[in-house]
Design goal:
80 residues, mainly alpha, Helix Hairpins, 62% helix, 0% strand
């Protein structure tokens, strides 16, 4: 693993890139059980970080656009 387990990425994109790398490594199936658990734990932490950033960003967008959290979603408009 390239980062210490407790190091928090500075940017969302860094967390997402690291998470993708962890998933790729886990999917290869070449790690020991102990290594897999370390990678899995780090992945859970990164997922939480990404979720927090996305939730905060969504809240900011809702505030800026004046949308209520209970408002139904608008249908996606396409221009044919």
């Amino acid at each position: 693993m390239t980062r210490e387990a407790d190091t928090q990425p500075e940017r969302f994109e860094d967390a997402l890139t690291e998470l993708e790398s962890l998933v790729d490594t886990l999917e290869q199936g070449e790690l020991t059980l102990e290594q897999s658990l370390v990678y899995f734990e780090r992945g859970i932490k990164l997922t939480g970080i990404c979720r927090e950033v996305l939730d905060a960003s969504e809240q900011k967008v809702r505030i800026l656009t004046g949308e209520s959290l209970d408002a139904p979603p608008d249908p996606f408009q396409t221009h044919d």
